[in-house]
């Protein structure tokens, strides 16, 4: 309901909640299953957070230990490595994927043959639908140091290396290939959002630029790229809030030789839980999870603030 | 009025009698929590349950069966609430030790000592059961051995190299590998990892590890040591490094999965494969033949002077400490599992007319006469036969009673039987390590450090001495000593 106030402006007056619920009872009824689902599967499990302050091995009563789990956590050198890796892997991956997605989008946008453009788009989207387990198997074959390893054989034929390199067993090379594999799998998918943005640019601007004497390069640099600016920042901000969720891509590519150097927080929790040779202390692993969630929350709040500044609205 | 009172009294009496009779006939309910080693409802579980109840009047069996791959996740969730504990559950060795230590399992030592199975004269698993005892007490029952790996060598490769006798010493074994390497120009041995992720850890490369063991072991005098810190382990790592360097072990062992190894074995990429005894002997043979290769395999006995193959600690059936009538549950469910008769038949070969039959008929193009035992076609995998139900007949710890027909001869292929027999004669059981706070707290990081050092030594990135220096520098030795101390303090 709207009413006119003294200065002539319209002001919306909200009806009381009860009245609105009665009026829109059908919508509220339909919302109940969603509310129940969120309450049961998202909020109820949060009560498990309390175990971060206990020592608990499933059977037997939990033993209150206060902040001891957190003290232990910060003393473990492997935890620091895992935390640093989580941040570094995620940020590098994010910058690489987003940067290359922009470049590929710009290149796709410049393609004249529509058919070739569509085929190219499909080809670069496809890896996204491959599971991480299959991706790891395929790249294990491609990177194999044996005669069947495509990369090693190609590099040897080109005279760039003399002996095959066991890339996935080398801590330095592992990281390089981790980023390459991620780019191969995810960059194509990320171009969708940029391609959508590019199609929304007013063709009149390109025409005006052409009349002003701009060539393809200048049109790309002065028209297309600035139009993408806001979208790039939005994508970066939205993805930054999720960077603590790193598990599968790392886990499937790990092996004994690189495990310690490449652990991220979630794989660290996994090994603490299933590799201890005894029932894991779920209090400790919950403490790691809680720490991860708190860092994720802090990042999300920062991103929300940044989003408000850049886009005029937050992400939550 | 009197008539009415008499009538009411008679009615009350009748109702009381009926109630008493009903309560007397109330079956004892046994809730069992099982993984996929009891086949699921798509594979005759309901018929199994019905037949078990028919054999055990007075009992009502309730089977709770989560998906096999998430069994331990679901089991732990259930065990987190004492009110939800089942009467009986299957546990792997790690959970068995922890749950027993935490008082969650019923002590079945006395029940077992007086059991029909133990005193039947048919039972052959005394050593296995000794290995399951914690502080001399028994908390779990294993109807089978845990099984383990034996080394298979391709006969065709031996023939091609003119090797007529299977090697019996390490030197002869290495000579054989060198001959294979020269003949086929490929590393003749591959495995899924230079060290396993769970006990018995070394079972995929036993000829190279020999008497070394990378985990905590109890010596004969009762003291605990970390096998990784022993000289035998250093010597084993040197052997592995040399073999990788000489091209006898495929260096991609580091990243191979068991499936990679099987596929490469089938396509002749390598010729010596240490893998599960028993049914897998048949699987390896048939898959080689399906790939157009010679399927004949020679199973190596443990090399002279070296320890026997490792028998994995079997999963065990346990009764929880909240079970209301554990003696009755033990008697009906646990003790009867190897009764030498109908119940053992049910657990071993499954329900009749679902898993097996003696009626005349044709199964997968094979004709059977009336009265001839034969396994039936798998309900979920058309084209394949069922081979067993829960108990693998080749691993069973008790034979059937005298006079009771055991269809093992008809249901088990000769190569599987031979591999299993060789393993059973030449294996020892991996020991249980009791859980301690230090083990729980430190072993996760310690195991990863040990695996990394083993991998780096195997690949020749570092020497054995450098590996052990890293172990000390990076806190491995300190953690190892703390765990050993905690084990010795028990």
Structure description:
The complex is a heterodimer of chains A (316) and B (490). Chain A is built from 14 helices and four strands. Chain A has two domains: 2-55, no CATH class; 68-311, MetI-like (MetI-like fold, Orthogonal Bundle), CATH 1.10.3720. Chain A is flat, with a radius of gyration of 26 Å. Chain A has helices at residues 17-23, 25-43, 68-75, 77-109, 114-125, 132-142, 150-157, 171-199, 203-211, 216-240, 248-251, 259-262, 265-274, 282-311, and strands spanning 2-4, 10-12, 54-55, 63-64. The two termini of chain A are 27 Å apart. In chain A, the strands form two sheets. Chain A has a two-stranded antiparallel sheet with strand order 1-2. Chain A is mainly α and 316 residues long. In chain A, helix 4 (77-109) runs parallel beside helix 8 (171-199) and helix 10 runs antiparallel to helix 14 (282-311). The radius of gyration of chain B is 26 Å and the shape is globular. Chain B is built from 19 helices and 15 strands. Chain B has helices at 2-25, 45-55, 71-79, 93-101, 109-113, 126-132, 155-160, 170-184, 206-209, 231-245, 258-266, 279-290, 326-334, 342-349, 408-411, 414-425, 437-458, 464-473, 476-488, and strands at residues 28-33, 59-64, 88-91, 149-154, 216-218, 224-226, 272-276, 297-300, 309-311, 316-319, 356-357, 361-363, 366-368, 374-375, 427-429. Chain B is an alpha/beta fold. In chain B, strand 12 (361-363) and strand 13 (366-368) form a beta hairpin. In chain B, helix 2 (45-55) packs antiparallel against helix 14 (342-349) and helix 17 (437-458) runs antiparallel to helix 18. Mean pLDDT of chain B is 90; it is low at 18-23. Classes of the chains: A mainly alpha (316), B alpha/beta (490). At the A-B interface, helix 13 of A face helix 4 and helix 17 of B.
Q: What keyword list fits this structure?
A:
heterodimer, A: about 325 residues, mainly alpha, MetI-like fold, two-stranded antiparallel ribbon, 14 helices, B: about 500 residues, alpha/beta, D-Maltodextrin-Binding Protein, domain 2, 3-stranded antiparallel sheet, 15 strands, about 40% helix
């Amino acid at each position: 309901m709207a009413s006119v106030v003294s200065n002539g402006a319209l002001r919306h007056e909200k009806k009381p909640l009860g009245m609105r619920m009665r009026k829109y009872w059908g919508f509220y009824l339909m919302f109940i299953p969603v509310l129940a689902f969120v309450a049961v599967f998202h909020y109820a499990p949060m009560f498990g957070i309390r175990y971060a302050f206990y020592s608990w091995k499933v059977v037997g009563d939990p033993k209150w230990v206060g902040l001891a789990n957190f003290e232990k956590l910060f003393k473990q050198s492997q935890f620091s490595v895992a935390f640093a890796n989580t941040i570094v892997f995620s940020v590098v991956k994010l910058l690489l994927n987003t940067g290359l997605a922009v470049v590929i989008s710009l290149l796709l946008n410049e393609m004249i043959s529509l058919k070739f453009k569509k085929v190219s788009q499909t080809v670069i989207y496809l890896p996204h639908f491959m599971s991480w387990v299959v991706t790891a198997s395929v790249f294990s074959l491609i990177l194999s140091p044996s005669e069947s390893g495509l990369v090693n054989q190609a590099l040897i034929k080109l005279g760039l290396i003399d002996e095959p390199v066991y890339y996935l067993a080398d801590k330095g090379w592992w990281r390089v290939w981790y980023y390459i594999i991620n780019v191969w799998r995810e960059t194509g998918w990320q171009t969708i959002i940029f391609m959508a943005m590019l199609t929304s640019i007013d063709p009149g601007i390109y025409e005006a630029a052409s009349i002003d004497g701009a060539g393809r390069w200048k049109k790309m640099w002065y028209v297309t790229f600035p139009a993408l600016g806001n979208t790039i920042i939005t994508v970066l901000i939205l993805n930054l809030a999720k960077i603590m969720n790193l598990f599968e891509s790392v886990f499937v590519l790990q092996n004994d030789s690189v495990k310690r150097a490449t652990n991220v927080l979630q794989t660290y929790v996994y090994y603490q839980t299933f590799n201890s040779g005894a029932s894991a202390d779920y209090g400790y692993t919950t403490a790691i999870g809680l720490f991860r969630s708190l860092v994720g929350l802090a990042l999300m709040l920062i991103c929300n603030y940044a989003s408000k500044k850049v886009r005029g609205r937050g992400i939550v | 009025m009197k008539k009415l009172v008499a009538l009411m009294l008679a009615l009350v009496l009748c109702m009381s009698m009926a109630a008493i009779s009903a309560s007397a006939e109330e079956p004892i309910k046994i809730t069992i929590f099982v993984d996929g080693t009891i086949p699921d409802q798509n594979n005759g579980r309901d018929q199994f349950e019905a037949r078990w109840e028919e054999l055990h009047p007075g009992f009502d069996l309730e089977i709770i069966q989560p998906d096999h791959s998430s069994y331990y996740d679901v089991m732990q969730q259930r065990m987190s609430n004492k009110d939800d504990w089942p009467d009986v559950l299957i546990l792997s060795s790690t959970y068995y030790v922890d749950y027993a230590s935490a008082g969650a399992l019923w002590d079945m030592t006395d029940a077992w000592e007086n059991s029909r199975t133990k005193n039947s004269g048919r039972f052959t698993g005394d050593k296995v059961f000794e290995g399951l005892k914690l502080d001399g007490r028994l908390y779990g029952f294993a109807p089978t051995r845990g099984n383990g790996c034996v080394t298979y060598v391709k006969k065709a490769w031996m023939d091609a190299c003119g090797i007529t006798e299977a090697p019996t010493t390490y030197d002869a074994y290495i000579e054989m590998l060198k001959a294979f390497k020269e003949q086929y120009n490929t590393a003749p041995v591959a495995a899924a990892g230079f060290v396993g992720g769970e006990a018995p850890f070394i079972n995929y490369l036993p000829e190279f590890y020999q008497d070394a063991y990378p985990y905590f072991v109890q010596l004969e005098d009762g003291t605990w040591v970390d096998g990784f810190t022993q000289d035998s382990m250093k010597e084993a790592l040197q052997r592995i490094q040399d073999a990788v360097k000489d091209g006898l072990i495929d260096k991609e062992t580091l990243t191979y999965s068991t499936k990679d190894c099987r596929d490469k074995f089938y396509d002749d990429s390598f010729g010596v494969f240490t893998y599960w005894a028993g049914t897998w002997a048949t699987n390896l043979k048939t898959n080689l033949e399906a790939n157009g290769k010679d399927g004949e395999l020679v199973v190596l006995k443990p090399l002279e002077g070296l320890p026997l193959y490792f028998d994995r600690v079997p999963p065990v059936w346990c009764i929880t400490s909240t079970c209301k009538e554990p003696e009755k549950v033990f008697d009906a469910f646990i003790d009867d599992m190897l009764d030498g008769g109908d119940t053992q038949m049910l657990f071993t070969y499954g329900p009749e007319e679902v898993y097996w039959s003696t009626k005349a008929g044709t199964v997968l193009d094979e004709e059977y006469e009336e009265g001839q035992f034969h396994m039936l076609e798998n309900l979920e995998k058309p084209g394949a036969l069922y081979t067993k139900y829960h108990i693998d007949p080749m691993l069973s710890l008790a034979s059937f009673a005298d006079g009771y027909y055991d269809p093992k001869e008809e249901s088990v292929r000769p190569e599987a039987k031979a591999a299993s027999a060789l393993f059973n004669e030449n294996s020892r059981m991996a020991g249980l390590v009791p859980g301690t706070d230090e083990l729980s707290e430190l072993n996760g990081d310690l195991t990863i450090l040990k695996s990394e050092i083993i991998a780096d030594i195997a690949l020749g990135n570092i020497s054995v001495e450098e590996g052990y220096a890293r172990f000390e520098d990076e806190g491995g030795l300190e953690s190892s000593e703390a765990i050993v101390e905690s084990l010795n303090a028990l």
